[in-house]
Structure formats: C-alpha cells, structure tokens
Amino acid sequence: NKNKVMGVFEVSHGTVNFSVVSPREIFIRALLCGATNIFLCHNHPSGDCTPSREDMTVTDRIKEAGQLMNIKLIDHIVIGNSYYSFREEGKI
After folding, report:
1. How far apart are CA 26 and CA 74, in angstroms?
2. pTM of the entire predicted model
3. What are phi and psi of 64, to 5 degrees?
4. What does the angle CA 4 – CA 5 – CA 11 come to, to the nearest 5 degrees?
5. Which helix (H) or strand (E) holds 79?
6. Element at 78 (helix H, strand E)
7. Do residues 84 and 50 touch, judged by C-beta distance below 8 A?
8. Edge-to-edge order in the sheet of strand 72-79
9. In whole angstroms, what is the distance from residue 3 CA to residue 10 CA?
10. Which of 5, 6, 49, 74 could form a disulfide with 80 if both were Cys (CB 3.0 to 4.6 A apart)?
C-alpha cells in the first residue's frame, strides 16, 4: 500500500518492433508477491516514446483487469530518447 517495490519482472521480450504481453502474465506475478499496485514500463527501440495504439489498448486492458482484482495500475512508462508517462498525460 505504500508503493514499496516487491518485485521486478520481465513478462515479455519482444522483437525489434513487436511484443506480446498478456494481462494474465502480469497479474500472475502481482498476485504471487501480494502486490496492491503495479507499474509497467517498456522501451521503444526506435527512440520515439510516443505510445502506439497497441500500447494504449494494452494499458486500458491491464487497468480494467486490475480493477477487477483491486490491483491499481499506477503508471505505464514508455522509454525512448525521452519517456512518456500515461499517468502524467492523464491517460490513467
């Protein structure tokens, strides 16, 4: 509840321009370590940190799934030459 980091997990290792991530894989880890909040982060090898349509869709799906389990998605950060925070942009 105090945002103490309880674990850091790699749930997907993609190709140069695509990665598959499942809410199931994320929440298995969150539930096993007793997390009440989660934070997502991924990189864009191109350097452009603008989230793709798929990034936005996945973020929404994970947020909705978390709400069902009372696990809050705190933020989703996209890293490139800079960064994009869904929370700072009001998307979460």
Report:
1. 14
2. 0.86
3. -65, -45
4. 150
5. strand 72-79
6. strand 72-79
7. yes
8. 37-43, 72-79, 83-85
9. 19
10. 49
Per the document, the length of the chain is: 92
Residue 92: Cβ within 10 Å count: 17
Helix (H, G, I), strand (E, B) or coil at 73: strand
- The separation between the first and the last C-alpha atoms of the chain, rounded to the nearest angstrom, is 18
> From CA 40, how far away is CA 14, in angstroms rounded?
15
Each residue's pLDDT tens digit, 6-62: 777 878 776 666 677 888 999 999 999 999 999 999 999 889 999 999 999 999 999
Dist CA 28 CA 91 (whole Å): 24
Structure tokens of 6?
């309880």
